[in-house]
Amino acid sequence: MSFKDPSSLKIKEYTIPFLDDRSDEMVVALVGDLHIGPITSEKQIGFLKTGLKKIKPDVILLQGDLIDSPEFLDEPKYFRKTKQVLKFLSELAPTVTVFGNHDLFISTRKNRTRSEKPIIPEGTFEKWEAIFKETGVKLLKDEWFTLGDLRVFGFFQDKVCFEKDGKTGENYQEMRKKLKKLAETGKLETKPGKFNWFFSHAPIHELVKMKELRGFEAFSFGHTHGGCVPRGVDAIVDKFGLHGGLIAPTKGFFPREQIRGMEILPNRARLIVTSGLSGVTATALKPLQYLNFLKSAEITKITIKGI
Ligand SMILES: [Fe+2]
Ligand SMILES: [Fe+2]
After folding, report:
1. Sheet holding 270-273, edge to edge
2. Calpha distance 302→305 (Å, rounded)
3. How far apart are the CA of 170 and the centre of ligand 2, in A?
4. pTM (2 decimals)?
5. Ligand 2 center–CA 35 separation, angstroms
6. Nearest to residue 166, comparing CAs of 119, 107, 111, 117?
Protein backbone atom coordinates (compact mmCIF):
# COMPACT_ATOMS: atom_id res chain seq x y z
CA MET A 1 0.00 0.00 0.00
CA SER A 2 1.26 3.43 -0.84
CA PHE A 3 0.08 6.90 0.01
CA LYS A 4 1.76 8.23 -3.10
CA ASP A 5 1.18 5.75 -5.91
CA PRO A 6 -2.13 4.66 -7.36
CA SER A 7 -2.36 1.00 -6.50
CA SER A 8 -4.11 -0.22 -9.65
CA LEU A 9 -5.22 0.84 -13.09
CA LYS A 10 -8.85 1.48 -13.88
CA ILE A 11 -9.96 1.65 -17.49
CA LYS A 12 -13.25 3.53 -17.57
CA GLU A 13 -15.30 2.66 -20.62
CA TYR A 14 -18.16 4.56 -22.22
CA THR A 15 -19.94 4.35 -25.55
CA ILE A 16 -21.33 7.33 -27.41
CA PRO A 17 -23.88 6.58 -30.15
CA PHE A 18 -23.41 8.66 -33.26
CA LEU A 19 -26.26 9.32 -35.67
CA ASP A 20 -24.51 8.07 -38.70
CA ASP A 21 -24.85 5.02 -40.91
CA ARG A 22 -21.25 4.01 -40.34
CA SER A 23 -20.75 0.40 -39.32
CA ASP A 24 -17.25 0.86 -37.96
CA GLU A 25 -16.48 2.35 -34.59
CA MET A 26 -13.79 4.67 -33.34
CA VAL A 27 -11.93 4.32 -30.05
CA VAL A 28 -10.72 7.47 -28.31
CA ALA A 29 -8.41 7.17 -25.29
CA LEU A 30 -8.33 10.01 -22.77
CA VAL A 31 -5.09 10.27 -20.83
CA GLY A 32 -4.74 12.98 -18.24
CA ASP A 33 -2.50 14.39 -15.55
CA LEU A 34 0.72 12.45 -16.00
CA HIS A 35 2.60 15.00 -13.85
CA ILE A 36 5.99 13.62 -14.86
CA GLY A 37 8.40 14.53 -12.08
CA PRO A 38 9.07 13.32 -8.55
CA ILE A 39 5.41 12.46 -7.86
CA THR A 40 4.98 10.10 -10.82
CA SER A 41 6.50 6.65 -10.57
CA GLU A 42 7.54 4.03 -13.09
CA LYS A 43 4.53 2.04 -11.91
CA GLN A 44 2.15 4.71 -13.19
CA ILE A 45 3.94 4.97 -16.54
CA GLY A 46 3.79 1.16 -16.73
CA PHE A 47 0.01 1.30 -16.09
CA LEU A 48 -0.37 3.82 -18.87
CA LYS A 49 1.51 1.73 -21.42
CA THR A 50 -0.20 -1.57 -20.58
CA GLY A 51 -3.63 0.05 -20.47
CA LEU A 52 -3.29 1.76 -23.81
CA LYS A 53 -2.00 -1.37 -25.53
CA LYS A 54 -5.11 -3.11 -24.29
CA ILE A 55 -7.46 -0.35 -25.42
CA LYS A 56 -5.92 -0.10 -28.92
CA PRO A 57 -7.06 3.50 -29.47
CA ASP A 58 -7.55 5.08 -32.88
CA VAL A 59 -6.62 8.41 -31.35
CA ILE A 60 -5.24 9.56 -27.98
CA LEU A 61 -6.31 12.84 -26.38
CA LEU A 62 -3.86 14.08 -23.77
CA GLN A 63 -5.79 16.20 -21.32
CA GLY A 64 -2.77 18.21 -20.10
CA ASP A 65 -0.50 18.36 -17.04
CA LEU A 66 2.02 16.17 -18.82
CA ILE A 67 4.78 17.39 -16.50
CA ASP A 68 4.52 18.46 -12.86
CA SER A 69 6.24 21.81 -13.38
CA PRO A 70 7.88 23.50 -16.41
CA GLU A 71 11.06 23.75 -14.31
CA PHE A 72 11.46 19.99 -14.79
CA LEU A 73 12.01 20.55 -18.51
CA ASP A 74 15.51 21.65 -17.42
CA GLU A 75 16.16 18.47 -15.49
CA PRO A 76 17.60 15.83 -17.87
CA LYS A 77 15.92 12.93 -16.09
CA TYR A 78 12.40 14.34 -16.42
CA PHE A 79 13.03 15.92 -19.81
CA ARG A 80 14.03 12.49 -21.17
CA LYS A 81 11.11 10.76 -19.47
CA THR A 82 8.61 13.24 -20.94
CA LYS A 83 9.96 12.67 -24.45
CA GLN A 84 10.02 8.90 -23.98
CA VAL A 85 6.38 8.75 -22.84
CA LEU A 86 5.11 11.10 -25.56
CA LYS A 87 6.97 9.11 -28.21
CA PHE A 88 5.43 5.88 -26.96
CA LEU A 89 1.97 7.44 -27.26
CA SER A 90 2.37 8.89 -30.73
CA GLU A 91 3.83 5.62 -32.03
CA LEU A 92 0.78 3.79 -30.71
CA ALA A 93 -1.84 6.13 -32.22
CA PRO A 94 -2.19 9.72 -33.45
CA THR A 95 -1.85 11.79 -30.28
CA VAL A 96 -3.08 15.33 -29.68
CA THR A 97 -2.63 17.41 -26.55
CA VAL A 98 -3.59 20.63 -24.85
CA PHE A 99 -1.52 22.45 -22.23
CA GLY A 100 -2.40 21.97 -18.56
CA ASN A 101 -1.60 24.52 -15.87
CA HIS A 102 1.35 22.43 -14.65
CA ASP A 103 2.88 22.32 -18.16
CA LEU A 104 3.24 26.10 -18.17
CA PHE A 105 3.10 27.57 -14.68
CA ILE A 106 5.60 26.91 -11.92
CA SER A 107 4.02 24.33 -9.66
CA THR A 108 2.53 25.33 -6.34
CA ARG A 109 4.59 22.54 -4.83
CA LYS A 110 7.87 24.09 -5.91
CA ASN A 111 8.64 27.24 -3.98
CA ARG A 112 5.26 28.76 -4.60
CA THR A 113 1.83 29.04 -3.04
CA ARG A 114 -1.62 29.36 -4.56
CA SER A 115 -1.79 32.96 -3.37
CA GLU A 116 0.69 33.97 -6.07
CA LYS A 117 0.01 34.75 -9.71
CA PRO A 118 0.81 32.03 -12.25
CA ILE A 119 4.34 32.37 -13.59
CA ILE A 120 5.55 30.89 -16.89
CA PRO A 121 9.36 30.50 -16.95
CA GLU A 122 11.10 32.00 -19.96
CA GLY A 123 11.55 29.61 -22.89
CA THR A 124 8.77 27.22 -21.77
CA PHE A 125 6.79 27.39 -25.04
CA GLU A 126 9.95 26.90 -27.14
CA LYS A 127 10.96 23.85 -25.08
CA TRP A 128 7.53 22.27 -25.52
CA GLU A 129 7.54 23.04 -29.23
CA ALA A 130 10.83 21.14 -29.62
CA ILE A 131 9.50 18.18 -27.59
CA PHE A 132 6.28 17.93 -29.61
CA LYS A 133 8.20 18.16 -32.87
CA GLU A 134 10.59 15.39 -31.84
CA THR A 135 7.92 13.06 -30.46
CA GLY A 136 5.20 13.55 -33.09
CA VAL A 137 2.55 14.72 -30.60
CA LYS A 138 0.29 17.45 -31.99
CA LEU A 139 -0.37 20.39 -29.70
CA LEU A 140 -3.73 22.09 -30.22
CA LYS A 141 -3.84 25.76 -29.22
CA ASP A 142 -7.33 26.81 -30.22
CA GLU A 143 -7.04 24.57 -33.26
CA TRP A 144 -8.78 21.62 -34.89
CA PHE A 145 -7.50 18.14 -35.62
CA THR A 146 -9.41 15.84 -37.97
CA LEU A 147 -9.33 12.06 -38.21
CA GLY A 148 -12.02 10.55 -40.43
CA ASP A 149 -15.40 11.69 -39.09
CA LEU A 150 -13.88 12.90 -35.82
CA ARG A 151 -13.06 16.59 -35.49
CA VAL A 152 -11.28 17.60 -32.27
CA PHE A 153 -10.93 21.19 -31.06
CA GLY A 154 -8.24 21.84 -28.43
CA PHE A 155 -9.05 24.89 -26.29
CA PHE A 156 -5.94 26.69 -24.99
CA GLN A 157 -6.45 27.73 -21.36
CA ASP A 158 -3.77 30.37 -21.22
CA LYS A 159 -2.51 32.54 -18.39
CA VAL A 160 -5.64 34.71 -18.13
CA CYS A 161 -7.73 31.54 -17.76
CA PHE A 162 -5.68 30.56 -14.69
CA GLU A 163 -5.40 33.88 -12.88
CA LYS A 164 -8.17 35.05 -10.62
CA ASP A 165 -8.06 38.08 -8.31
CA GLY A 166 -4.26 38.16 -8.59
CA LYS A 167 -3.94 34.50 -7.56
CA THR A 168 -3.64 31.16 -9.30
CA GLY A 169 -7.08 29.68 -10.00
CA GLU A 170 -9.57 28.93 -12.76
CA ASN A 171 -11.07 32.12 -14.13
CA TYR A 172 -14.33 31.10 -15.83
CA GLN A 173 -15.19 34.69 -16.72
CA GLU A 174 -12.03 35.04 -18.78
CA MET A 175 -12.61 31.63 -20.34
CA ARG A 176 -16.13 32.70 -21.36
CA LYS A 177 -14.71 35.86 -22.94
CA LYS A 178 -12.10 33.87 -24.80
CA LEU A 179 -14.64 31.36 -26.11
CA LYS A 180 -16.91 34.17 -27.32
CA LYS A 181 -14.00 35.73 -29.17
CA LEU A 182 -13.07 32.40 -30.76
CA ALA A 183 -16.68 31.95 -31.90
CA GLU A 184 -16.79 35.46 -33.37
CA THR A 185 -13.74 34.72 -35.49
CA GLY A 186 -15.27 31.43 -36.71
CA LYS A 187 -12.72 29.23 -34.94
CA LEU A 188 -15.36 27.22 -33.08
CA GLU A 189 -17.33 26.35 -36.17
CA THR A 190 -18.57 22.77 -35.98
CA LYS A 191 -19.55 20.65 -38.99
CA PRO A 192 -22.88 18.84 -39.12
CA GLY A 193 -22.52 15.13 -39.88
CA LYS A 194 -19.10 15.02 -38.22
CA PHE A 195 -18.41 14.13 -34.59
CA ASN A 196 -17.24 17.46 -33.13
CA TRP A 197 -15.24 17.05 -29.91
CA PHE A 198 -14.07 19.91 -27.64
CA PHE A 199 -11.25 19.27 -25.20
CA SER A 200 -9.17 21.26 -22.75
CA HIS A 201 -7.52 20.82 -19.39
CA ALA A 202 -9.66 22.27 -16.57
CA PRO A 203 -13.38 21.37 -16.66
CA ILE A 204 -15.76 24.18 -17.65
CA HIS A 205 -19.09 22.72 -16.58
CA GLU A 206 -21.00 26.01 -16.70
CA LEU A 207 -19.56 27.15 -20.01
CA VAL A 208 -20.34 24.04 -22.06
CA LYS A 209 -23.93 25.29 -22.22
CA MET A 210 -22.89 28.48 -24.03
CA LYS A 211 -24.65 28.87 -27.37
CA GLU A 212 -21.22 29.19 -29.00
CA LEU A 213 -20.51 25.54 -28.04
CA ARG A 214 -23.85 24.09 -29.10
CA GLY A 215 -22.53 22.19 -32.09
CA PHE A 216 -20.22 19.90 -30.08
CA GLU A 217 -21.12 16.26 -29.50
CA ALA A 218 -18.58 15.74 -26.70
CA PHE A 219 -16.46 17.69 -24.21
CA SER A 220 -13.56 16.20 -22.27
CA PHE A 221 -11.35 17.46 -19.48
CA GLY A 222 -8.74 16.38 -16.93
CA HIS A 223 -7.21 18.45 -14.09
CA THR A 224 -9.44 17.19 -11.29
CA HIS A 225 -7.49 14.10 -10.19
CA GLY A 226 -10.93 13.18 -8.96
CA GLY A 227 -10.67 15.14 -5.77
CA CYS A 228 -9.93 13.04 -2.74
CA VAL A 229 -11.82 9.83 -2.54
CA PRO A 230 -10.67 6.35 -1.58
CA ARG A 231 -10.93 3.59 -4.16
CA GLY A 232 -13.69 1.72 -2.35
CA VAL A 233 -15.88 4.83 -2.39
CA ASP A 234 -15.11 5.31 -6.09
CA ALA A 235 -16.57 1.92 -6.82
CA ILE A 236 -19.80 2.65 -4.95
CA VAL A 237 -20.34 6.04 -6.57
CA ASP A 238 -19.55 4.50 -9.98
CA LYS A 239 -22.66 2.38 -9.62
CA PHE A 240 -24.74 5.56 -9.84
CA GLY A 241 -23.03 6.56 -13.06
CA LEU A 242 -20.67 9.16 -11.68
CA HIS A 243 -17.71 9.21 -9.42
CA GLY A 244 -16.22 12.28 -8.00
CA GLY A 245 -14.33 14.19 -5.42
CA LEU A 246 -15.30 14.32 -1.82
CA ILE A 247 -13.28 17.44 -1.20
CA ALA A 248 -10.82 19.58 -3.15
CA PRO A 249 -8.57 22.43 -2.08
CA THR A 250 -10.31 25.82 -2.46
CA LYS A 251 -13.48 24.16 -3.80
CA GLY A 252 -15.03 22.67 -0.69
CA PHE A 253 -17.03 19.47 -0.38
CA PHE A 254 -18.41 17.59 -3.41
CA PRO A 255 -17.35 20.30 -5.84
CA ARG A 256 -19.10 19.96 -9.16
CA GLU A 257 -15.88 20.68 -11.05
CA GLN A 258 -14.34 17.60 -9.46
CA ILE A 259 -16.93 15.12 -10.64
CA ARG A 260 -15.40 12.53 -12.89
CA GLY A 261 -17.01 10.18 -15.33
CA MET A 262 -19.44 10.91 -18.14
CA GLU A 263 -22.66 12.85 -17.95
CA ILE A 264 -25.25 13.52 -20.63
CA LEU A 265 -26.09 17.19 -21.05
CA PRO A 266 -29.66 18.37 -21.83
CA ASN A 267 -28.80 18.64 -25.55
CA ARG A 268 -27.47 15.01 -25.51
CA ALA A 269 -23.84 16.12 -25.75
CA ARG A 270 -21.45 14.18 -23.49
CA LEU A 271 -19.26 15.73 -20.81
CA ILE A 272 -16.38 13.52 -19.73
CA VAL A 273 -13.83 14.16 -16.99
CA THR A 274 -10.93 11.75 -16.55
CA SER A 275 -9.00 11.71 -13.31
CA GLY A 276 -5.78 10.58 -14.96
CA LEU A 277 -2.67 9.01 -13.59
CA SER A 278 -1.62 11.52 -11.02
CA GLY A 279 -0.32 10.78 -7.58
CA VAL A 280 -2.62 11.67 -4.76
CA THR A 281 -0.58 14.37 -3.09
CA ALA A 282 -1.47 16.70 -5.91
CA THR A 283 -5.12 16.86 -4.96
CA ALA A 284 -5.51 18.13 -1.42
CA LEU A 285 -3.90 19.66 1.57
CA LYS A 286 -2.55 17.44 4.32
CA PRO A 287 -4.02 15.40 5.95
CA LEU A 288 -6.98 15.22 3.54
CA GLN A 289 -4.80 13.92 0.74
CA TYR A 290 -4.50 10.63 2.60
CA LEU A 291 -8.21 10.01 2.13
CA ASN A 292 -7.19 9.17 -1.38
CA PHE A 293 -4.55 6.59 -0.63
CA LEU A 294 -6.11 3.76 -2.58
CA LYS A 295 -7.00 5.71 -5.68
CA SER A 296 -6.50 3.98 -9.03
CA ALA A 297 -4.70 5.41 -11.99
CA GLU A 298 -7.28 5.95 -14.70
CA ILE A 299 -7.52 5.88 -18.48
CA THR A 300 -10.85 6.60 -20.13
CA LYS A 301 -11.89 4.68 -23.22
CA ILE A 302 -14.65 6.15 -25.36
CA THR A 303 -16.13 4.19 -28.23
CA ILE A 304 -18.01 6.22 -30.81
CA LYS A 305 -20.48 3.89 -32.48
CA GLY A 306 -22.78 4.43 -35.43
CA ILE A 307 -26.43 3.56 -34.82
FE1 LIG B 1 -3.14 17.77 -12.79
FE1 LIG C 1 -4.20 20.83 -13.76
Report:
1. 143-147, 150-154, 195-199, 218-221, 270-273, 260-264, 242-243
2. 9
3. 10
4. 0.91
5. 9
6. 117
Contact criterion met (CB below 8 Å) for 166 and 217: no
Per-domain residue ranges for the chain?
9-306
Task: Find the 304 Cα to ligand 1 centroid distance in Å.
Answer: 26
pLDDT digits (tens, 9 = 90+) for 77-104: 999 999 999 999 999 999 999 999 999 9
DSSP 134: H
* 9-306, CATH topology level: Purple Acid Phosphatase; chain A, domain 2 (3.60.21)
Residues ≥6 apart with Cβ < 8 Å to 306: 17, 18, 20, 21, 22, 23, 24, 25
Closest ligand (CA of 40) = 1
**CA 69–ligand 1 middle distance (angstroms):** 10
Q: Are 284 and 228 in contact (CB under 8 A)?
A: yes
Please state, in angstroms and rounded to a whole number, the distance separating the CA atoms of residues 91 and 222: 22
Q: Is the peptide bond before 203 cis (omega within 30 degrees of 0)?
A: no
